[in-house]
């Protein structure tokens, strides 16, 4: 049966395989071995990356839920969130293993369609996490309401700068849904609620802290009246903080709102370099994804959109029980 399924996948995804031939290899990490042993249901998870602590926290939640449910998982992703081709190669390799289910977080919502459709044609249930593929095959997605989270970042930025002045955004992606929605949520909230705040620049550093630092320094130089910068993920925000440090500035000179957690951002908030950040619930995302895949394997219908929540944290509430539970180092 597995061999028949594999042949079906290869036939259906032939065009996608040709398109991927010769793509650059990306780094990855994984858990649980190369493939399912056959003794337990096997779920292949492909994330968007491994360079941020966020994905390690998602992996932790997935592994904990897998142990609870008695399933086997592998968890891998490209070395950085710009390596779309490498991620697609990982997805093809996962399909070739004929897993009982696939869990996927899309770097590019369109490039993944042929392979996700191929998995569906092979009767492999597909669930998603963090960011979706524009295919009708996936039955569920566990994610943060990124538009709402971006709006919350805007509200706190506006409050901290007195609801007037110039701000900028260092984004991490113009392609995947998290980057687009975290940006748009912030922009739309500013336009709707804070007419005296002007967003003077939006640039993208691919979630790389070095690129993001260079972008932030250029923004600060170009806009001497700049009052705040919003970084839309861990690498973006850490890059902004590093830019402040390199320029000899601090939180009194520029208000920085970040996104996600991780030791670097938490330290920056504690030290006053960053005003605060939006945190997701990555452990919850991992756990809910495995639960959804398990349900799909067993013929149950998981919730179509599983909202795992978001929170604003700063130096005052970081140790509150509700906030501390969703922070990670």
Automatic annotation (TrEMBL):
User: What SUPFAM superfamilies does the database record attribute to this sequence?
Assistant: Periplasmic binding protein-like I
| KW Glycoprotein (keyword) present | no
Keyword annotations for this protein, in alphabetical order, are:
Signal
Q: Which domain of life is it from?
A: Bacteria
InterPro entries per UniProt: Peripla_BP_I, SBP_2_dom
Extract one GO cellular component term from the record.
Answer: cell envelope
Under Pfam families, the record lists:
Peripla_BP_4
The stretch of residues making up the signal peptide is 1-21
Q: What are the recorded GO MF terms, alphabetically?
A: carbohydrate binding
- Domain Periplasmic binding protein: where? 43-300
Location in or out of the cell: Cell envelope
Regarding protein family, the annotation reads:
Belongs to the bacterial solute-binding protein 2 family.
**Protein name listed in UniProt:** BMP family ABC transporter substrate-binding protein
Species? Labedella populi
